[in-house]
Design brief:
The chain is 39% helix and 18% strand. It is built from eight helices and ten strands. Helix 2 crosses helix 3 and helix 3 (84-105) packs parallel to helix 5 (126-139).
């Protein structure tokens, strides 16, 4: 659904994947409004989670769990095919650990955003998205679900009665079907700051994004993602925030 261009965007969430051991969390968490906290399987550790949650509390940043596949070797970015019980255990294990550390630090766990291959598989696989969402709901029905705009994860969360956060990406290119360009392709990741800002402004102001083949794809941009492991993450975050504020758009969860 295309956003009505006559409606002014007053605020938008800016999120980043953190607690992955990339050494940029301290700076990112002074800029973004939401933190997707790695749950210790695809990267990071309980110590990284603890330190990141403390930083999030200090900077008044909203906290979400960022569960991924048990795939540290590939940073959780290689597809896997598990049975339903394994997917449920994967989610329960990581959500439980994150909630326990949130309680320890004294912050609220607000949402869940799957990581990497799990995120992309769920966006395109209706059955998998339903398994993940139903497990999130079983764990805590008050949790919001963050997922790719137009993807099955968002649709499934709505069907289960959970609140959704429709997400777009500042540093990733799109295919004409609304999916993210595979990281196996050279043009998957946006590395130019001006291009990233232009990308974001198009999605916010026009409710669409230009795919790599030139076709426009409708998007709903409630939250903008930056990958915390990207070498341009800090610069992108600073410039996106600056340009949005110049347009009167507040960064807010």
């Amino acid at each position: 659904m295309k956003i009505d261009a006559s409606k002014t965007v007053d605020s938008v969430d800016l999120n980043a994947d953190v607690a992955e051991g990339c050494g940029q969390d301290d700076k990112l968490l002074t800029i973004v409004s939401s933190a997707n906290v790695c749950c210790g399987l695809h990267a990071g550790s309980y110590a990284e989670m603890l330190a990141t949650l403390q930083l999030a509390k200090q900077n008044n940043v909203r906290v979400g769990a960022h569960p991924g596949l048990n795939d540290r070797e590939n940073f959780g970015r290689t597809n896997q095919s598990l049975d339903e019980g394994e997917y449920r255990a994967l989610m329960a294990y990581q959500l439980g650990a994150t909630k326990a550390l949130c309680d320890l630090v004294g912050v609220s766990l607000e949402y869940v955003k799957p990581h990497g291959a799990l995120y992309n598989q769920a966006a395109s696989d209706e059955k998998l998205s339903d398994i993940l969402v139903s497990e999130i709901k079983r764990f805590d029905p008050t949790l919001k679900v963050m997922g790719l705009s137009g993807g099955y994860l968002v649709k499934s969360a709505k069907n289960h009665g959970l609140e959704v956060i429709s997400e777009v990406f500042a540093d990733r290119n799109y295919e004409k079907d609304g999916s993210l360009v595979s990281r196996s392709k050279d043009n998957a990741v946006i590395t130019d700051t001006d291009e990233a800002v232009k990308h974001v402004l198009q999605m916010l102001n026009e409710g669409e994004v230009t795919s790599i083949c030139g076709a426009t794809v409708p998007v709903e941009a409630q939250s903008i993602c930056l990958h915390g492991d990207g070498e341009h993450a800090i610069l992108f975050a600073q410039e996106i925030k600056k340009q949005l504020e110049l347009q009167g758009i507040e960064i807010s969860a």
